[in-house]
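Dear support,

I submitted the protein below through the web form. The confirmation email said the job was done, but the results page showed an empty box. After a refresh the structure appeared. I'm attaching both so you can tell me whether what I see now is the final result or a partial one.
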Amino acid sequence: IRVTVSGTVVNAINNAPISGATVTLTLGSNVVTTTTSSSGAYTIIGIAGTGTYQLSGSASGFATSTVNLNL
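What the results page shows now:
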């Protein structure tokens, strides 16, 4: 299975997009990292494997947020 994960990182207070945020997807030792665009968008393409991934977003001046994704 190959999947794509995409989304937008926004400020939780005012919903403004966060440019340059780091988005990390982790499953065991498999780690994929990308950076958001000027509109806060990100896409991680071609993830192999199933299981419970951790998706984290972080940016300077903001708290890191992490959610679990069951793929």
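Response: this is the final, complete result; the empty box was a page-load delay. The two ends are 9 Å apart (CA to CA).
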